[in-house]
Predict the structure.
Amino acid sequence: MSGDGDSRLSVEADFTQAKFDNLVSGWSKAQKAPARATFTFVGRGRPTRLEDIVFDGNGASIRGSVEFDQNGDFVSGTFPVFGLADGDKASLQLERAADNLYRMSTPRSGRSRASRAKCCAISTCT
């Protein structure tokens, strides 16, 4: 526990034995293919954050952070490194908008789009 009241918990996960099939559109991982994730859970009451997210596996490389509101619902995510295949070099920003829409933007291109999230790894979709 740090002096400002934050509680921090380091998390490591080995997904080698897991199988993912289109967890994110266009990305799958076979069972026994190496994959690993680490992040730091930071709670200051509410809202909470996942910081220093690192995921590597089956060509995917993701780095970033995510914030949740006081109800535990997804608010925003910033991923300065977001690649789903070897050689991908992108960044991604996600934020919850009105009416259960999620705005996705790639800061380098300035393009953004809103979409109703039907299958998301980190949201409460309806």
